[in-house]
Request: fold
Amino acid sequence: MLKRIFFWTLVVFFFIVAPTIIFYSLGYRFNPQRGIFVYTGSITIKSNPLNVEVFVDQVSESKSLNRINNSYHIGGIKPGEHLIEVKSSGFNSWSKKITVNSGTSTEFWNVLLTKNDYEKAEYSAPKIENFFFDPGKKLMAYIQSKNEGFMVNVLDVDSNESENVFNSEEYKFTDDKKENIEWSPQSKKIIVPVVKDGTKNYFLIDVKNKETFDLKNLAKVEKIEKVRWDQDNKDFIYYISEGNLHHLDTTDVEHDSIIAKNIASYDLSSEYVYYFQLPSGIIYRTNSNGTSDPEQITTSSPDKMSDPGYQITVYDKKRIA
Reply:
């Protein structure tokens, strides 16, 4: 009799437990509030650094690593609101309240943890007013004011040694917050924006040979503004004079072409030059040397866009301010 009772008890227990195990393996979880099994969702996280611990509602979760894209997958999360936290030793934690839905994965592909403490380096460059790193982050041009005018020094970050490359008692460094020193793509030359009696000018400085060129004299123009390096063509610069956008070879000043006439401003993105045409307020783009036919980017603009003070900032073809 006892054996029969024990046997049927095991049978009943099997039929109770087996569906639960099967449902659990298929991604279902029991919801005690509703008294039913619900289909779960999941979370996918790609973090920097890679070695992290993931908590859901303050409980550490087991996770599987996808070696193809270095992301973590945490399954079996009940639908609803949850607090997700990502932690790693030596880093500040990242947290977010999220909503998980049945049968779908809530994805976070750019979870960046900041360090608790960053290594600091001190450079022997006192009384710096502005500083500008070269593309390789190995050289830093910085500004120091003098009683009259200012000077530009270049610091070698590795050796911590500075070298003076420019001095002026006639000009002051620009007070235009939209302009600063700009390094050439090869990190060999810099453009320094200056002002004298409210009039803009620019100096091109070869930091290796310590040669200085007045860009007004080089371009043979009376007014010059918004000078930028061409990122694709070595030693070429862009500038605006009398509302026209120029493309100048600084090693051969006879090679000075006008890319666009009557513009308010321009910007560079990828291999293209974008410019704001007046008075229509339409934005166009052309290739870096201006030889391709202009491509119209916008089709309309607000009224009264003829003011030459308008600026454009371009991230790519679809994102322009």
Observations:
- The chain is about 10% helix and 50% strand.
- The chain has a mean pLDDT of 85.
- Residues 2-25 form the longest helix (24 residues).
- Helices lie at 2-25, 215-219.
